Amino acid sequence: MALTPAQKRLYSGDYNYMDQAWQSDGSVIVTLSGGRSGQVHRAHIRDLWGKDETVLTEETLDPRPPPHIAARLAEAFAAAHPEPVEGPAPEEVPHDNP
Questions:
Q1: What does the DSSP assignment read for 63-93?
Q2: One digit per residue, pLDDT tens: the chain, 98 residues?
Q3: With CB atoms 3.0 to 4.6 Å apart as the test, which of 32, 73, 80, 82 could cross-link to 15 if both were Cys?
Q4: Is the pTM of this model over 0.70?
Q5: 97 SS3 class
């Protein structure tokens, strides 16, 4: 049986982050991200690493944050990096101590 894209990444080690969520039926949901592809794969696998390993479902996820999170990140960045204030450049401000 041919390996799925998520299995290929899992076995090759082509990921920077891996999360495993074990399910009550003994299966596991594996999420892989980073690596050379830059994609995020999520696979629901029964008998992970076993002789009867079966991929129940697999999906490729968008690696970008959801729009509401992207908006909050933009707000936080803007708050942390305000526009320059009008006035003299710092080297033009007189100092009390020469």
A1: -SPPHHHHHHHHHHHHHHSPPPPSS--GGGS
A2: 688 989 988 999 888 899 999 999 999 999 999 877 778 999 999 999 899 999 999 999 888 888 999 999 999 998 988 776 666 665 655 555 55
A3: 32
A4: no
A5: coil
Structure tokens at 43: 């696979």
Per the CB < 8 A criterion, the answer to whether 39 and 63 are in contact is: yes
Read off the amino acid at residue 21: A
Contact 45, 28 (CB under 8 A): yes
**What are the b/e assignments for 26-57, b being 16+ CB within 10 Å?**
ebbbbbbbebebebbbbbbbeebeeeeeebee
Largest pairwise CA distance in the chain = 78
Query: CA–CA separation, 61 vs 42, rounded Å?
Result: 7
Distance CA 7, CA 79 (A): 42
Identity of residue 1: M
